[in-house]
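INFO batch 0412 | record 1 of 1 | parsing
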Amino acid sequence: MENSIYKYILAHSKKQQIILTLLSCASFPFLYYYLELPKIIIDQAIQAKDIVFPVEYMGFSIDQQAFLYVAVCIFLVLVVINQGFKYVINVYQGITGERMLRRLRFQLYSHILRFPLPIFRKKSSGELIPMITAEVEPLGGFIGEAFALPVFQGGYLVVIMAFLLIQNVYMAMAAIALYPLQAYFIPKMQKKVNLLGKERVQRVRALSEKIGETVAGVQEIHIHDTSNYLRANFSQQLGRIYKVRYSIYLLKFVIKFLNNFIQQLGPFFFYGLGGTMVIEGNLEIGTLVAAISAHKEMAAPWKALLSYYQRREDARIKYEQVVEQFEPAGLRTEAHQSTEPDPLPLLSGEMIGSNIILSDDTGSAQLEGLNIRFGLDKKIAIVGAAGSGREALTQVLARLIDPDKGRISAGDLDMLQAPEAITGRRISYIGQSGYIFNDTIGENLFFGLKHRPLQDIEIHDEEMQEFLNNDKAEIKLTGNSPHNFTADWIDYASAGVTNPEQLDVRAIDVLQMVELGDDVYQFGLRSTLNPQEDVEEASLILAARRRFFEKLEADPALANLVEAFEQDKYNTNATLGENLLFGTPVGNKFDMERLAENSYVQKVIEEADLTRAFLEMGYHVATLMIELFADLPPDHEFFQLYGFISSEELPEYQAIISRVSMENVDQLREEDRLRFMSLPFKVIPSRHRLGVITDDIQEKIVQARKQFVDHLPHDLEGSIAFFDADAYNAAANIQDNILFGKIAYGYAQANEKIGALLASVVEEMELKRAIIKVGLNFNTGAGGARLSENQRQKLCIARSIIKKPQLLVINQAIASFDHRTQQRLLENILEEFEERSVIWSLEKPEMAYLFDQIVLINGGVVAETGDYDQLQKSSEQFRMLTA
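INFO prediction complete | emitting tokens
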């Protein structure tokens, strides 16, 4: 990137800057006549000085009044023209600035993608994110005005000065008498502001880094009770930022005071000097008025130029700081990621590493003249003590790190010069803790297959299609990526398949290989699908529902373990709220925790003549809860079983009951009425056995259910997916769709028995793979937070396997698993790569017997090589590692 902001501007927006400059220059003649016209109006049109009316113009006779109207109309036209120029220039400045800002952000992001890996050990996301987002934001505004504003505002000032000089030299000198004073003091004070601004930027970056660390390490903070320590540290950082900003504000307002004071001295000279000259007859009143008007016009451009100077210095500092941070030593070239050989060469023959030297950022040697050689169809185990250089070697061979010296080749291919199109597709690397993106399991699994867009996908959203069409021109102007993000990016051939259906099959096989299939199956059971889009899957699940109930009814031991949803029957294993709605809420219009506050629910209850009954049930429930829980600790299991009232709410209910009796519940305040009415909605008769939901109440709720459906307002339609025994419920998950009811309370091991029955139905109908496919749409959360550590690691392993690399490099990737899991995963992966190469830095050297060749690393060099039996006989060090 260019080291100067002006060089950057000219390199990427010279044409736009020239257009803006020409527009600015074109506005000056209109500005001059705009200043001249008030004098003509006062002296000639109003006072008739130096003019005799009527005047002849192009054959028309114009009297004094008509002359005045013409002059005023011309003045109005000039106002419109001048404002039009300002509008066009400002809009074009804004567009130019935003395009350049888009280009700059894209380039900075591209640089991050080319950073050498060790840089991320010193730079945190807390530093990089604000630089791309917040810090460069002001640069967009400055870039648009970089040349046009000084030309436009400077020219504006020159035109006004020329006008004043033409009117009266003394008046012109009075107008600019104090400008040199400003020109001297302002830059000096602005230099101090700039230095403080630079310090402020650095301190805010440090603050961002601290916030990022806090978010990432919040678990450790809770474990060790260090929140007060971190608050104190954060407070001190805020204090230092405050001190810097305080100093900046003091200087800025001194500058502002000086500017305003000097600006207000202008009228003093005009009224004093100009007034004297008018009294003495040396100056006409119209000229004085025009000069005063022109001086007022001078304030805006002069102020804009001073403000521009401040912004220019601020932009210069920000740009230079950002460029310095985004061009570290070892930055890979743009061609490294953009070059794509055709055809893409295969790795063949032997991989040879010669005299590889690598040091860390402290200068400590990690690899010291290491030499390694192996066939690209062999399985290589790398073993060695901690700190031997194993990790560094795997990263160098995977081309994640460039060695300081040495050579790496694969057959005739120089791997140090090979573009990422080769290394990123022919080689895959799995470290100790891979990263999971905030997306679905499927998107994370197929991430390694998305190199280039392969074919466009038809877009049915007109707004999106219009955006994409319009953005194509902007992409060319801003140097952004020309690739269509909405296209199909998946390289099916790389995964060994030809279409999405085959890829899904391959994905499930790979998930099973890394023992993640059952987990994704569980995610699938708890996921929803769209029956309009997934017609076949929805049909299969409905068939599974029927088969489930057939098997349930056929086994007397299971027949009573599930209470199905029936249109004309109250489900005693569901809450009253679920019985009333008889469906799954869609969106937030029906919040199951706040049904009592819903106006439509209140209306249905009132029309069913249940309002008084709900108040009495709520009063009764609250009374029982107070009696049961009054002396229990907050963590008692009863609070979980009867989750109507929390331990914190008990005193509030107790206070209400002490004021109002059961007979007077109608007199409760609205807030208290809602409290009591909300309690019955949470009661499950078969679980809580409080006796408040009688058979009569159940019958009325079933009747109210029909009214609820029949009179549902138009604006609430679609807010509930109602239960239908013959239809798939799009708002419910797959498991609930098969179950279509509630597991009965009070039966021993009911959940386990029903779970086993459901699993047998899925197995019998061969639904497991279909459900795993649905599970691929499960969102993993930020950084894979919704997955366990082992699940995240297994997903990273699967991601590297599914793209079928020729060389798989693994660095202690299964160290967090138990021994048996490690053994199974190792065997599965080696079997998958039977005819391809694997380099594995083993956490358990005793597993090295499964490999063709073992490389023993010690002190950054290859100490010994051989197969397992050879090293067991000849190497004391290897025997110690495997002992």
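INFO post-check: The chain has a mean pLDDT of 87.
INFO record closed
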